[in-house]
């Protein structure tokens, strides 16, 4: 299971990197079209704003699994080994619960966005809201799985 989670995290992080490159290309195109032809791409700001949210959660799972999220090292360095392990296990369980709760409470807004044909953007460029919200909710679920995996490995270390 750990191997699958790590592979999924790597694939999602790679997808996040690809989205960043696509956004960079879109911004370059927008600037060039604005300067050369006076006709920028109408949806650049909206697409980049949506992409930033997606990239954050696409990359978060790998950052978590590689211990690259922010931590309060000042406090953690002072804890004895067993207490530190317990604290990290509990922190990971709280992280999993947080992201599962976020995913659960996002179900109704996703359904409502689907029913009402909600969109992001302006009249010049529109992005349907429900697929973006669904993608973020799924990424939250996957991040919760990563937190549970970290909690299990932390707890496993304390049992040894």
From TrEMBL:
Q: How does it sit in the membrane?
A: Multi-pass membrane protein
| Recorded family membership | Belongs to the TRAP transporter small permease family.
Annotated GO molecular function terms are:
transmembrane transporter activity
Source organism: Stappia indica
According to the record, the segments passing through the membrane are 12-29, 41-61, 82-107, 127-148
One CC-aspect GO term? plasma membrane
Q: What does this protein do?
A: Part of the tripartite ATP-independent periplasmic (TRAP) transport system.
- Subcellular location per the Swiss-Prot or TrEMBL entry: Cell inner membrane; Cell membrane
Q: Classify the main location.
A: membrane
Assembly with partners or alone: The complex comprises the extracytoplasmic solute receptor protein and the two transmembrane proteins.
Its name, as the record gives it, is TRAP transporter small permease protein
